Amino acid sequence: MLRVMACGMLVVGLSGCFRTSVRTGAPRDGSPVTRTGASLFFGLTMPPVTASECRHGVSRVDVFSPWWGALVTVATVGLVMPLRTEYVCAEMPQSVSAEPQVPASIAPL
Questions:
Q1: What pLDDT is attached to residue 109?
Q2: 3-class secondary structure for 29-96?
Q3: What's the CA gap between 32 and 64, in Å, rounded?
Q4: CB burial class (10 A; 0-12, 13-18, 19+) of residue 85?
Q5: Which residues are within 8 A (CB) of 52 and not within 5 positions of it... i.e. 6 or more apart?
Q6: 8-29 tens-digit pLDDT
Q7: What is this structure's pTM?
Q8: What residues pair up with 34 in beta bridges, in sequence order?
Q9: Portion of the chain with pLDDT greater than 90, in percent
Q10: 91 Cβ neighbours under 8 A, 6+ residues apart
Q11: Which of helix, strand or coil describes residue 105?
């Protein structure tokens, strides 16, 4: 019995939290924006991550499970896993003008 309890504690103690990070290297513009969603049916569906207010892309994106997410996942037998998404918009590049440039190879309509 002691061996089973020790193995259980080892599994719980060494289990990690879900976290995915993407860094683009672009300079940051503003503070981080946080959104909460849920992964359903054992991770088969994920919440959509859209940053429509970021006109020049994103500087970084982090998707992770909050500390209380494990409790919800166990309580729902894995059907719901809360996720938190945090992103920072990127600054407008200095070399790019505000108006999009049309390549010369495209004829006007």
A1: 53
A2: CCCCEEEEEEEECCCCECCCCCCCCCCCCEEEEEEECCCCHHHHHHHCCCCEEEEEEEEEEECCCCCC
A3: 14
A4: buried
A5: none
A6: 776 665 555 677 888 888 888 8
A7: 0.62
A8: 86
A9: 0
A10: 26, 27, 28, 29, 56, 59
A11: coil
